[in-house]
Amino acid sequence: MSIIAYEVVGRTGDATQRSLKYHVRDPAKGPVTDADAVTAVLAESPTSHFGFERRSINLSEVGLNYYEVVVQYGEHTVTPAKATPPDGELQYSFETTVESVDVKRSLATVSSQISATYSTAVAAANAICTLQGLPTISTSAPDLKGAINVTADGVQGTQIFIPTTRFQYRMRASAADFYGALGSFDAYQLRVEELVGTVNDAPFHGRPAGSVLFDGLTGGWQTTLDDGSLGWDLSFAFRFRKNRTGITIGDIPPFDAKGWEYVHPLFAPAKQTGTHLLLVEPLAVYVEQMYEDGDLSILGI
Predict the structure, then answer these.
(1) Dihedral sign for Cα atoms in the order 52, 54, 60, 62
(2) Are residues 89 and 203 in the same domain?
(3) Does residue 161 sit in the same domain as residue 17?
(4) What is the torsional sign of CA 119, 124, 130, 134?
(5) Total number of domains constituting the chain
(6) Quick one: average pLDDT of 165-169?
(7) β-strand pairing of 66-74 with 154-155
């Protein structure tokens, strides 16, 4: 069998691609298959054409044992390989963003104004106080000590955005590399499940104790370890909030709070000096632990 491929009229192309057209047949009129046509065209057509690389071969059977084949040429492209960390090494990714939280107080009161009605009433009251030799009332807006949206029902607060970072570590390794002294991967997985939703009780990858929340673990058994053996491909997710120091609320002494601790002040009615108004003021502050502490070193990363 002497199958041949020869170029025929029908070249096309532009600035990004080119094509050549071939006919394939057996001069002895023997059988020609799809595979025969492709093999013949691969042998006859150039691997590159006008600087473009051979990209694809499209064939159609136009007669009995007779094929028309179009060879497409285009620019060389590389499909990026999916990033995979070497076995036993950590791959790190992160996202820094904001999330919404409820707050009852501000960092600082930038400015305040009083209404014309209140100003007129204060002026009239002060005139009487002056005549009677009594202390006058302040003409400034009452000092709410940073309390936000104060109503007759108390401090309503508002929602704000605070910075937060989500980060992830990925590692491929054998089961033994993960479970270590725990003895089995099942035991390791149970310990990990207990750690989800806990906060680091010691520094973790450069972040201080109390600032990292373990968000969870995803992964599975796979067969692509570098040595060809079976292993695990696991991704560990975390959230970070910075620890705070020297927090001030009203005239309460400065205090500290860890990133995932919750701070809430107690506001109580108090007669304010200068205005003689009964307002709410911060009486005390509480720092609450909301998440259990966890030993994240058990994760083995």
Answers:
(1) positive
(2) yes
(3) no
(4) negative
(5) 3
(6) 92
(7) unpaired
- Block residue for tokens 């007779």: 66
Q: Which two tokens stand for residue 3?
A: 């199958």
Radius of gyration of the chain (CA): 37
Q: Which of 260, 298, 261 is nearest to 285 (CA)?
A: 261
Token couple for 288: 């609450």
Asked whether the beta carbons of 231 and 222 are under 8 A apart, the reply is: yes
Over the stretch 79-136, which tens digit does the pLDDT of each residue have? 444 456 566 677 888 888 888 888 888 888 888 777 787 778 878 888 888 888 888 7
Same-domain status, 24 and 120 = no
On whether both 123 and 246 belong to a single domain, the answer is no
Determine the average pLDDT of the residues in 50-67: 86
DSSP-assigned letter for residue 108 = -
Same domain for 43 and 182?
Answer: no
Domain that holds residue 65: 4-74
What integer pLDDT is reported at residue 79 of this predicted model? 45
Sign of the dihedral through C-alpha 90, 95, 100, 102: positive
How is residue 67 written in tokens?
């094929």
**Whether 267 and 176 share a structural domain:** yes
214 in the same domain as 167: yes
Residue with more model confidence, 154 or 50: 50
One domain for residues 21 and 54: yes
